[in-house]
Amino acid sequence: MPDVTTRQGRALGTQDKIVKLGLITFNKAEVIGYGEEGKVYKGKFGEFTNAAIKDYVFTNSSTIARLKERAVKANESLRNVTCANIVGFFSFYEKPNAFYLCMELCDCNLEYFIRHWPQEIPKNGFEQTLNGLNVLHENQFLHRDLKPSNVLVKRERTRILLKVSDFSLSKEADAKMSVTSGPYVGTVGWMPPEIHHEVEAKSPNIVVNASADIFACGMLGYYVVSAGNMLYHSQQDINQDNADYRYLHNHTAEDLVRAMTCRDERKRPNAKMCLQHPYHWDSCKTIRYFKDVSDTIIGEQRNNNTNMANALDQNFHQVFQLEWETTLTLQVQIELFTAPRTRTRPRYNKFKVSSLIRAIRNTKDHFHEMVHLHQELGNDEIELLAYWTKLFPQLFIHAYTTLKPMANLYRNLQQYY
Fold first, then answer.
1. Domain boundary pick from 104, 136, 168
2. How many domains is the chain built from?
3. pLDDT score of 413
């Protein structure tokens, strides 16, 4: 069967070239993207499945063989993995000096999407990207070239999915999640400093670890959460650690990005740990965390133990300047500090973080009794949490990081760490 056919009744021309490669069919006029190795076309796999076909055309047969080995091996290994955040792989076709990958058709890449529809970025976009990377790492592959153009976006019914794609530089890792590479191991401007240093030194064998993917994914996370802003504006900024956090207004997200882009690659969390970070928690889990922390403090104090409270209160200035009472809205101030004390109205210490967390706990536990405060606190737990975190934006991450070293001592807190 010839590779190129034409639509019946029309003259052969570039715009009418239909390429058929086994079960893969596409029109050379329908270019939907460009990669460093070739073009991406809209086509079909079989008769009914829409697909994206990426061509890799080279005169160097060894280059073709190397790219084919990497891209096809990763895609074949992930073919049976169920993950909405990795682009689907259908098939490939090989010709002399060229091969073609047939993949799931998406709408555009992340760079294009954020440029045109920044208001539509899904709130869990960072988590989706991490989830795709985690699945890749769980299957012993390193991506080695994470960047916005290698994350695809697909509108699917009522949700928007982010999908890690382009495995042309991916490589199967050893048991320590590392690979030995030649000089090309990513894109300048997205390389972690330790890898770029080796590239500049022209090292013939560069060892790349999973932590390199984590660094790039941290940059991607910032890019997503800040609606298209860059954490580092150049590779030089990366190398000199000139990070720009001006556009990240979520302190919990900042904590995660800082951990992922740590200068010491040994201290970067793995993808699974990143997914467990509190930035990805929903409101119900977060407010439950505050309740469990407060319950633990109350239990300790009954036994004349103040270790946890002392740890939280020691660096109170990270949460508020001198005291937290005057930060509250008027009616909540009256409820917590002026109204007569009862069982549901304990005395609060306006100078202590632990007492602030107890106030959150009590407004949660007695929320339905505080109908008179719903105009300020909100109408449900989601709005209740929003009230407190808006007034004290650094409280959550302060509590989480402060208690992390001692969490293993408390059974009801271990689930959060």
1. 104
2. 3
3. 95
